[in-house]
Amino acid sequence: MKLKTPYRFAESTYRVRPINILAIKDELGNVGLGEVEAFQFPNYIDEIQSECVRSLNKRIMPLLGSKDYDTPFEFSRFINSTNGPFMGRAAAEMAIWDLFAKRNNISVQKLMSLAVGDSGKLKTSVPVGVAIGIKSNSQQIIDEIHSQLNKGYTRIKLKINHSYTLKMLEEVRTEFPHVLMMLDANSQFGLKDSSFFKNIDGLNFAMIEQPLGKKDLRDHAKLQERINTPICLDENIFTSEDIWKVINSGAGKIINMKLARVGGIANALAMSSLSESHGLKVWCGGMLETGIGRAFNLALASQKFYSFPGDISASDRYYENDLINETFTLNNGKIDVPTSPGLGVTLNESSQNAFNGDEWIKI
């Protein structure tokens, strides 16, 4: 997937985004789609795209065909037992949820709401925000924020690293004093940088996402004691056990939930419920997904646990060419949630042709 413009994270820059799509077909001809969302290199978490694909081919898919599943939760319990990479497991589970919803003629959104016991009216759209990569100076940041606000985004996330100074952030906040804004450090700082975070306490950022190490909850707890701005945790949250550690340590007040990072939909729903019931806010993060992953995120972000705008962009945000026929457009800061049976999206001609060139493997 070729990005329209290079996207710079805290420690790396992406110009292309390798992504594998998994399709599972049942005996009725229904096809469920899943997306392997790991990056090419281990600069977000340790998992990489090739490792996830190898696990799917060699372990997860061969085991899948040997069992019967009456519900997607039964499959989720199985997939957790394989101990494969979280993002590989998630891709298979996405496809199963899509397939199960299609077999029952309901949307994935509806299936998720039923799974969490929510019988209320489904949301037709969800508020979304946009993440802005690392820039060289405050004017570049300001120009990009203006551009995204003009497109209709109402929440801005700024990726930051050590090149960002208090002065830069003050200049940004002076230009946009009332815009809902947050920071994402992608584990680039240490506890020694506490003074930097204390100094930005008064700039009214909604949260600071993952300021410290990927496996360091203790220092996150120390930092949260020293600052008023809520800490949001991302890279160190994989299981419900990690949520309990945050609850017990006070390492943060908010959880960024990415269904790929936690191994799939069932885990994401369970962990969101646990978080909310113990006073942690939760919102839906993004992974530079294709339209397939974006549709799953919209369904997840529409659930009762989520109110803060997620990292779910419109279709024209990242890629020159997406994989699906449908387009997601921004309307008053929101994107509509697909409501057709299953995931609600279909592969476009070029993507379908890529699948047609391969033989289905019976499992």
Automatic annotation (TrEMBL):
Cofactor: a divalent metal cation
GO molecular function, one term: O-succinylbenzoate synthase activity
Gene Ontology BP annotations: menaquinone biosynthetic process
Keywords, alphabetical: Magnesium, Metal-binding
Keyword Transferase set for record: no
Keyword Metal-binding: yes
Pfam families found in the cross-reference section: MR_MLE_C, MR_MLE_N
Record EC number: 4.2.1.113
Ranges for domain Mandelate racemase/muconate lactonizing enzyme C-terminal: 138-230
Family indicated by similarity: Belongs to the mandelate racemase/muconate lactonizing enzyme family.
Protein name in UniProt: o-succinylbenzoate synthase
